[in-house]
Fold:
Amino acid sequence: MSDTAYRMTASAADEAMPFGELGDYIALMKPRVMSLVVFTGLAGMLVAPGHLHWLLASVAVLCIAVGAGASGAINMWYDRDIDAVMERTRLRPLPLGRIAPEEALTFGVVLASGSVFLMGVAVNWTAAALLALTVLFYVFVYTIWLKRRTPQNIVIGGAAGAFPPMIGWAAVTGDVSLESFTLFALIFMWTPPHFWALSLYRCGDYAAAGVPMLPVVAGKAETKRQMLIYTVLLVPIAMVPTLLGFAGWVYGGAALVLGLAFVAAAIAVRRDETDRSAKRMFGFSIFYLFALFALLIADGVIGSMA
Structure:
């Protein structure tokens, strides 16, 4: 696409009709990201000690989903200028002009406020405070402060995506514990290699948008080195739930195997001069996190039935 066409696409967001189609509002909420957030939040609820009535548990999951969607909508509102010049994001509702910026912002703020309030009133205020922290961290720390300023954006900003299992845990227990922080640490350490794998083969996109992702600033070789470091450190962290006793050895053994496979993927990326291994690692990273939390859920459900 030519520079002129990109500018026309970017400016269209500010000239949009005030109301978009339902599908556009759903797209604003980043449903694929939301699904993983909800899944890890649900895992936190199911492995936490104690019991939450199924109706309140459903409300908690809904609030986590809506809070995540609100964060996505506000992120798209703020990033509509760079989204318009990136191949991966140029077809989002705001760059296409299908939703007006003020509508997207209002949508996100209303959803964020409503989800936090409902979580506090219906479940407990500890979970609500963590949900509010998640939204505020993603919007103000990651999106507004870090994303366009430092190659460590995804490292620090990744904390926002690591809070959901802590929220789920707090929904059941009403507190924050070492066990819930372990689940936070797992996602926190997983996030950099996951996103750096994507940024390796989308490097040109980020460079064109002026986003200082690590491959753009430090080069691909340094990015691959740091990816390997993070995946190696992730292996023992993923074993901690078993060592602390809130997950069994079936989970622990599977976590070890999956972790070693993740390390092998990072080694393959470091040796590969093409983008093929990076694309494979990005796909595997999603499976890795999903599998770990699915194992935690299964372990928690089996443990509660024993």
